[in-house]
Amino acid sequence: MKEEQQEETTPLLSPQRRGTYRPHNSKYKWACAAILLAETFERIAFYGITANLVLFLNRGDFLWTSYNAANALFIFMGLSYLMCVFGGWLADTVLGRFRTIVISFVVYILGIMFLPMLGHEGMRGKLCGGRSWVPVEPSNVTKHTTNDQEQYCDSLIYPIIAVIAIGTGSVKANIAPFGADQVKDEGPEVMRMFFNWFYWSINAGVLLSLGAVAFIQQNMGFFYGFLIPAVSLGVALILFVLGHPAYVCRAPSGSVLTNVFRIIMEACRSRRRRRRNYSQPSDIDTVVDPLPSPTWLDMAKVRYGGSFHESSVEDVKSLGKILPVFIVLIPYWMVYFQMQTTFQLQGLHLRIPPFNITVKNNNPGLTTQAIHNNTEPNGSGLVKMQMPAAWLTLFDALLLLILIPVMDRVVYPWMDRRGCHFSVLKRISLGMFFGLCAVMCAGGLETYRLHLVQSNHTVNQTISNASFEAADMWIWWQIPQYSLIGVSEVFASVAGLEFAYAAAPRSMHSIIMGLFFFTSGIGSLLGSGLLALVKKFDWVKDVDHGNINQGHLDYYFFVLGGLQFLSFVVFNIVAVSFHRSKMKRQKQQAGNGFGPRHLQRSSYIE
User: What is the mean pLDDT of residues 475-490?
Assistant: First the structure.
């Protein structure tokens, strides 16, 4: 019991205390390697689903409208992140992180197994049943022929993505803090290194998924394109389980969320007692209470007549300081999730360059598949294919793969040696600025693209059986907006992960990490809600089936830019308030005799 109390009050990122026994200290590198590899393969699976989901639903087999296809991905991404709170609660209170991650992987696999079936023509008919309507070409779609054709097989697709969201959300909420547990006692340098390489592993998975899986989906069919993510997810589970002997596994610490609500309720009920006993006395002869004037949450502490231990109430107070930072990040996530939804829709309406691949054309099955996917095999063995629109996301991933090691190994150490500490909150603020630049670039590009369309500078292109009337400008013009999103991730998203773990009390690691991702999910769902709102103004047309040329997606991007600018300003105000609160607490702790090691966690965050 004494050892446990000492652990609870030990600063999160402090060097290991002398004499503290950590049984797996020599194995933490192997544990981290297993976790990072598992995360890489899990991201291959996740981005194998999201990279072309809009195209999958927008093509001839389903023929959903662009609005409904983008909305389905917004909903999937939102649910995936919202489920992080459930996953964090399950790990912290019932199962522990290791068992929660394993069970979540199993649920994840059960959901993803249905996607290859939906990509196979024969299996899809058995799962979804026959259509009550005859598909028509997008160029022939009119207002009178689309109302009954919008969401074929939606009664199966939405439950499938919901099951996948439960699995991926629970994994996401726990795998980063579980990895951080392995290096918790190694100090802030190792902690920062872990989170940087954790994010590097994520984007290594993104690179492999978008580079290979997206190409296979667009040019060779969605059956194999979804089968690869399913197999990759199985490999991730195996790798994660193999690392078990080296893991530091912590037992669940009880129902944290229940305690939070109980503390808040008791503090609210005690407000009258606080006003009566601790208000400023008007009579000079009134005896002043020897205890310091408490906040309203302090009234739940035992020392002020409440029922809860001091540390439990302080944990809730810490949560109250962390949540405002998460909340003002929501518009950033609204911008971030455009990358795989509206950015991709925009890319499908720009000229996508074809390229030729030489194959041995003596396989009748290959020729049939190539014809089915609108490629053009000829007698010389050349098969004409198209670059996937999702490949533009590679610029985001490549920038992350390059910049994260550079920042971790070169820039941050160089700044630290010169006493210029680039804190977590400063990095988040800079990332939000780059996100603002990205969405404004997208808006400017869309304005020019619509100008070309209205001037009849268009080309017709067919991608995976779906026809698109594209502006006569190359898709490469999207590179700046994807690159700026990548730079913003290096700062905002990586630092956000660090902040969520470093600022959290030990008993609330998974819950707060889950709340971090929960606000990401809210950002995705609000992006969907904003898309539904602007549809009322005909900025996005409901009857389009692969055609966004009649709307004004640029206005949608500019509204997002305005929201991001406002959140950028508010975030900096909140960050200054957070910094002042920390400085005040540092002075109080210094006055109480705490040394600089006890204050290390605060300076790391600020």
Answer: 90
